[in-house]
Write a structure and sequence with these properties.
With 1021 residues, the protein is α/β, with parallel strands linked by helices. It is built from 44 helices and 24 strands. Helix 43 links the parallel strand 18 and strand 19.
Length: 1021
């Protein structure tokens, strides 16, 4: 029912005064002498705050009157009479939610009554048990009420004045955006006028090609075979593993104590990552590692369709419904999706930009030179997927190809430049493989318990009504059954577990091999049967013959270091195998291949002439089975140090019988003995040790031999070795020395050795690790205590807090919080740390509960993507340092409430408003400021910050604005500029006006103009 039709039942003259009661009375005057700050809705309602005149009971009466009067009009009632009370309660709750909306009156009017009603319904509790007619009537009634409420807002005396201010600011922003659009639009005489039209077609193609996701096991009866990606996508965390292990080793710039150097932690979010889909917003080049099934390729898809959606929104062709606003940084980016498994299928040369599209099978033909123009303009989003999916011998060639592209197109200016993402399994390439090329190396974190819960709920929603009864029992099993929970750490395994739990009506196999066996059974035999597919290709084969045939393809791909093969070659492999398979021999080999390709659920055709497995994990599993069935143990062991074979070897042990297992382990130990270096030896021993868990039966003597040999490479020498050892699992805990057993290994100091064993244990996410880690809680080394703090999120929150967090010496230690549960434990235990580091995962409720801790903290760090408000900080506080990678909801102008603030750092922010700059000027104690050069450029000419003595500027490879620095910071003593563009010469003459300047540090810069500076100024380059 439209609001206009509601109006025929509820006359505005009669009902308008009722709704006006929801709002406070307006004061006299136009408010022209005030600061014209935005007026939050919570200040305008009459049932909140100091001007409260209505109670919740009064709002309920008002709602009852609205509902009652809607029934007085003759004609058919708009909703069932027996739902009047429920409808009234829901309407009252929706109106009360007006005070919970995080917006001001100008924003509300700009939204319009329909969008405001949508926000209200989202903020209110969901209607419970209402019929369709009642729900529709409620929606219309809320829209009608919002129409009146917005009308009341526009009649307030202060509204027009503030609206004019907003319009002026909006016009200035629009002018800036138009200037930027003009700058980015290629000249007709310098480019091809067909580019824009082609890009629209290309992005639409990408959105369709990558816009859906297969979730394994959702292909049951009455369930969709694919999810829309904007519904299915689950953003995981990406962290810098190296920094997580050695947080205290970052000693770059003084952070808290002015001049003392006691506290040192500069811009940690450059290293820490954050949400995986946001890492390219903060880094222009990222190497992202993740295990099989962790979501690397899905992330590539998500970035691709997000860029396409942002382009559509920019062109005004869509509203971006459902699109995450945080992906706006991809606006005007043109994605190039480059899966290496496709590009190197025949060992051919990796493509130059003009062949990017044709090399991946895109049917569109770009205007000549288009890709070059996109990359030269810095508009490219280059997504190189799967370094691990090409043979190890070809990876250096891929790196050279990538470096050639970087040498040509690694552009960067004030608006940014090309963004580069490369994905890989964790051990496919060494640490720092691309660091010399400017890549930040991050790792996809395992799914947290909350993320697993979200995934399970989405899976069951997509699987249809028949899956609903199995959702909660599975969530209960994941909380109470350790072996199931340990498997559900990435989207692939979560999907399989959901599918098997539903298809087996609540029963799950135990262990990885039984899980895959059950998954194959479900896909190969039960899939078509449950969907009533019959035999569409006239082929009816049992599980065993299908597996025998498909594993031939898996073996060929694995042996040749590939994950994709030509369709014609795949068919020839199957054709040659069919005559030996009794059950298949009666059928035409070509028809058998077609049946396996289209009906097995294990194979797919990424292009018309290629075949691969739906996921690499199935290829590894079946290749392992083929190797054991044919007993090619020599081939297996010969690849023991090859990262592409790690899972194959583990799964082969799972397939093998006890005598075969013993032979595999014996050969692996011999291979380790013959290893040419420690790294290779460690990798083979770890593969053998982790394979122990896959064996159905293994003698104690073999187990002891393997663990004894593993103990010989303990302690690990670096964080990479530590993480590799941790993959062995619980058994390695018995091999790690305690604090008293550390002697300082070769090349390691005592504290370094302690850090490495703690790092190993902290990655063994088993409660058995807690007693071991607790033995190091009193250690005085900051790196060890930081590692223990970082590991908190991997274990049970309360147990870890009591056994370890409460025992840590807080001196110099960042207390990192990433969940409300951690906040609760900190408050419950009465801990009051000096340094707080807030991460993604905290809700507004958690931030509010943190108040007592924030009241006594001296330093606060807020990571990227954290939604927070300064209202969480008590009025009485002693914060002296604030580091932000996320803007507070109130903006920087509200920092004036932090009376003791001496050090302020903010990175990754857009231009500050004049009000925010004025707020910084009012910080009377602020002496040190850390920020981006692009943010400084927004400083108005009238702003001076004379109290700032130390400025640390991240240049973002721009030419630093030295004249602007000298004008804005006349009291500057020390200047540090990092991230400069090394191809430029930087003139320091503009700094000559700074009377108190003593030191300028610009690492790696070529500078001139130093002769204009006083001789007392020390210049470091």
């Amino acid at each position: 029912m439209e609001p206009a039709l509601i109006g025929t039942r509820l006359a505005s003259a009669a009902i308008g005064p009722l709704l006006r009661k929801l709002l406070v009375k307006d004061g006299p005057g136009a408010g022209l002498t005030g600061d014209r700050k935005p007026v939050r809705l919570s200040r305008l309602v009459s049932f909140r705050g100091e001007q409260r005149t209505l109670t919740d009971k009064d709002v309920r009466k008002l709602a009852a009157t609205l509902v009652e009067r809607s029934l007085t009009d003759p004609g058919e009632p708009p909703f069932p009479a027996d739902e009047t009370e429920a409808l009234t309660d829901t309407l009252a709750a929706t109106l009360v939610a007006l005070g919970d909306l995080d917006m001001d009156d100008v924003q509300a009017v700009r939204l319009g009554h329909r969008d405001l009603a949508r926000h209200l319904r989202a903020a209110a509790p969901a209607p419970d048990g209402l019929s369709t007619d009642s729900a529709l009537f409620l929606d219309s009634l809320v829209e009608w009420a919002c129409l009146h409420i917005l009308n009341f807002f526009t009649q307030r005396s202060t509204f027009v004045a503030r609206t004019l201010v907003e319009q002026t600011r909006g016009q200035a922003e629009l002018i800036a955006k138009v200037d930027e659009l003009i700058r980015r639009t290629p000249r007709v005489d310098g480019g091809d006028p067909r580019d824009a039209a082609f890009e629209r077609r290309y992005l639409a193609y990408l959105a369709k090609k990558h816009g859906s996701l297969t979730i394994y096991g959702v292909d049951l009866r009455d369930a969709p075979e694919k999810w829309p990606l904007d519904v299915a996508y689950l953003s995981l965390e990406a962290t810098d593993s190296w920094f997580a292990e050695q947080a205290a080793a970052i000693q770059a710039t003084e952070w808290l104590d002015l001049g003392s150097g006691r506290r040192t932690a500069f811009h940690r979010d450059d290293l820490l990552g954050g949400r995986a889909d946001q890492v390219l917003a903060r880094h222009d080049k990222v190497l992202l590692r993740g295990i099989a099934g962790s979501g690397k390729t899905t992330l590539v898809q998500w970035l691709t369709i997000s860029a396409a959606a942002e382009h559509e929104n920019q062109d005004g062709q869509g509203q971006g419904q459902g699109q995450d606003a945080s992906m706006a940084y991809l606006r005007d980016r043109i994605p190039f999706v480059l899966p290496l498994r496709t590009l190197t299928r025949h060992g051919e040369r990796l493509p130059a930009p003009e062949r990017f599209l044709s090399a991946v099978g895109c049917p569109l033909t770009a205007p000549e030179g288009w890709a070059d123009r996109v990359l030269a303009a810095g508009r490219g989003l280059i997504l190189v997927d799967g370094i691990d999916e090409i043979p190890e011998a070809e990876r250096d060639r891929a790196r050279r190809w990538l470096r050639d592209l970087l040498d040509t197109y690694d552009t960067y200016d004030a608006q940014g430049g090309n963004r580069w993402l490369v994905t890989s399994r964790p051990t496919a390439v060494r640490d720092d493989w691309l660091s010399s090329d400017g890549f930040t190396e991050l790792t996809l974190s395992p799914m947290s318990a909350a993320e697993v819960t979200t995934f399970v709920r989405r899976w069951h929603q997509a699987a249809g009504p028949g899956a609903a009864p199995y959702e909660q029992p599975l969530l209960d099993a994941l909380r109470t059954t350790a072996d199931v929970a340990q498997l559900a750490t990435n989207p692939l395994m979560c999907g399989l577990i959901c599918a098997l739990h539903r298809s087996r009506r609540g029963f799950l196999p135990r262990g990885r091999k039984p899980l895959y066996d059950a998954a194959l059974s479900m896909l190969l035999s039960r899939r078509d049967r449950e969907r009533d597919m019959g035999t569409p290709y006239g082929i009816e084969l049992g599980e065993a013959p299908q597996i025998r045939l498909i594993q031939r393809l898996a073996y060929w791909l694995t042996l040749n270091g590939r994950t994709q093969m030509d369709r014609s070659h795949a068919e020839s492999v199957v054709r040659s195998a069919v005559p030996a398979i009794t059950e298949a021999a009666a059928y035409d080999p070509g028809a058998v291949f077609t049946h396996l390709l289209h009906r097995s659920g294990l194979l797919r055709e990424p292009t018309a002439d290629t075949v691969d497995f739906v996921h690499r994990t199935f290829q590894d599993y079946l290749a392992a089975k083929a190797l054991v069935d044919d007993w090619h143990i020599g081939v297996l062991v010969a690849h023991a140090a090859d990262d592409q074979w790690e899972d194959v070897i583990r799964m082969a042990v799972g397939h093998a019988r006890p005598r075969e297992c013993a032979e595999i382990f014996d050969e692996l130990l011999k291979r380790a003995d013959a290893a040419p270096d420690r790294r290779t030896q460690l990798r083979i021993l770890v593969v053998a040790a982790t394979a122990l868990e896959e064996a159905t039966e293994v003698s104690p003597e073999i187990r002891e031999r393997i663990l004894a040999r593993t103990a010989e490479v303990i302690p690990p020498r670096d964080a990479e070795e530590a993480r590799e050892l941790a993959s062995v699992g619980r058994a390695v805990l018995d091999l790690l020395p305690g604090p008293d057993g550390l002697t300082g290994g070769p090349g390691l100091r005592h504290d370094e050795e302690a850090l490495m064993v703690v790092t190993t244990a902290s990655h063994i996410t088993d409660d058995a690790a807690l007693p071991y880690l607790a033995r190091f809680a009193r250690h005085d080394d900051l790196g060890i205590r930081s590692q223990l703090m970082w590991a908190w999120s991997r274990f049970d929150t309360r147990s870890y807090a009591e056994e370890i967090i409460a025992q840590l010496d807080p001196d110099g230690l960042d207390f990192t919080l990433s969940s409300d549960a951690q906040v609760h434990e900190l408050v419950r235990l009465g801990l009051r740390p000096e340094f707080l580091d807030l991460r993604v995962g905290l809700s507004d409720h958690g931030m509010a509960a943190l108040g007592p801790v924030l009241a006594t903290a001296g330093s606060l760090s807020v990571a990227a993507d954290v939604s927070w408000s300064l209202e969480s900080v008590p009025v009485e506080n002693r914060l002296r340092a604030l580091h932000m990678a996320s803007r507070p909801r109130e903006g920087l102008g509200s920092l004036t409430a932090l009376k003791e603030l001496a050090v302020l750092s903010f990175y990754g922010f857009d231009a500050l408003s004049e009000q925010e700059w004025s707020g910084l000027r009012m910080l009377e104690r602020m002496q040190r400021l850390l920020m981006d050069a692009s943010t400084l450029r927004s400083c108005p000419d009238t702003i001076r910050l004379p109290r700032v003595r130390s400025l640390h500027l991240r240049a973002e490879r721009l030419v630093p604005p030295f004249a602007l620095m000298a004008r804005t910071f006349p009291g500057l003593h020390r200047l540090v500029v990092t991230g400069i563009h090394h191809s430029h010469t930087h003139d320091l003459a503009a700094l000559a006006s700074l009377e108190h300047l003593a030191r300028v540090s610009i690492p790696g810069a070529d500078v001139t103009g130093t002769e204009h500076l006083p001789p007392t100024v020390q210049v470091l380059t």
